[in-house]
Amino acid sequence: MDLENCIVCDSSFLQVIHNKVESLPSNFSVTNNHAGRFVIVRCQSCGMTFVQNPLTSEEEKEVDLIEDFHEEFPEPEGRHRYMARMLIGEYEKNSRLRVLEVGCGYGAILRFVRDKGFRYEALELSPWRVKMLEEAGYPVARMTLREYSRKYQDRKFDVIIIDNVLEHIVGPKKIMEEAMALLAPEGKIIISVPGLYDVRRWLVPGWARKYLWQPKRHVNFFCSRTLASMLSPMGLQGGSFPLLFPRSADARQFILFLEIIFDRFLPEPLFGLYRIFAKASG
Ligand SMILES: [Zn+2]
Fold this sequence. Notes:
Layout: E1 14-16, E2 40-43, E3 49-51, H1 57-67, H2 78-93, E4 98-102, H3 108-113, E5 119-123, H4 127-135, H5 145-151, E6 157-163, H6 172-181, E7 183-193, H7 200-203, H8 207-212, E8 220-221, H9 224-231, E9 236-239, H10 251-263, E10 273-279
Parallel strand pairs: 4-5, 4-6, 6-7
Antiparallel strand pairs: 1-2, 2-3, 3-8, 7-10, 9-10
Zinc ion (ZN) binds at residues 6, 8-9, 11, 43, 45-46, 48.
């Protein structure tokens, strides 16, 4: 097949890697319905790794319904509470804080910060999740960032959260450009994505296949370098999350706190990739 150019640097120097990735057989498939279907490539110029032939949007809806379906709100992850604390910290500095979350899922962060007093808008595409949140009293707009930015082009946000979304989006550059257009001059974009070099790939048998290489749902596999390469031409400069010592005996928060410490010293994070991007100065 003809390969599309790199989604980050536009290089045509791509190598098919799914037969070289651990835990994936050369003709791997996630289900029998998709036998041998997906092609994962790595850009030989910048290292970006991505699925060449993702699901169509119709197929995607079906997968989403089957694979990420909860009747009740799932338990929040450590990162959700951590990000909620970061937002509350921002609000203490700026009482007019405006926050937009792109792809809020089951509203884990929203549910932590709802009563704190700042403006928090959330976008989510899954009709089921939107319905659940609305029934629980959390208004969420069911639209894409593109639709939102066209409809409300005059709105600006101090913080935009894109939490575990970029790995799912075909054309992640586009969504970041749309986010930039809604960012206030001193605004920040908080991003988390799974890390391509997560150590559990090598340490935990079956982990990579279950949580990383799932080409039906994950189409982009970022590392800290490729995320920065995608965003620096847009004038965005990334930094680590602030160190927030856990306030409770919550193990998830403590693990995240350790991750953020290690992130400051290691070239690649041990687990997920947590970054705050701001407009580069000068
Ligand atoms: Zn590239």
